[in-house]
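[Automated response] Your request has been received and processed.

Submitted sequence:
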Amino acid sequence: MDFYEAKAPLIMAGVFIFVAIIAQLIYLNRRKSCTEQSVGVVTGYDMKVSYSDENIEERSGMTYIYSPICRYEAGMNTVTSIGIYRFRRRKYNDGQSVTVFYDPNNEKKFYIKGEVPVSLFAFVMLVIGAGLLTVGIAAGLHLI
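Generated structure:
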């Protein structure tokens, strides 16, 4: 198989990575609507189980992901809600005061100041996906 015959897998891999990372960046962008600030208290965590092959030996492949539950004042209301981001570890202690940003149109939607899930990985994968896509298209057009 010469280089030009490999163009379809390159294009498909590039499109897949590109779309997956765009979806991740949209996920990271969910906090834009959270414009109002308040002081909140972490009251606990919402815990979900995520299965992954990398932890198959320990805990039977289960990984726990956590999202903080906070109580805060939003306008005239006291709100207790689950944060919009999930993490592999508990980042805050129960009872800890935190600064929250919430959506004034949906007061239960919030994130804690400083919470930004993995973004460097998303950027690197976006560049790799765009590169694969470009090489695949260039090979298809016999430009390289």
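Summary generated for your ticket: Residues 3-140 form one domain. The helical segments are 7-28, 120-140.
If you did not submit this request, please reply to this message.
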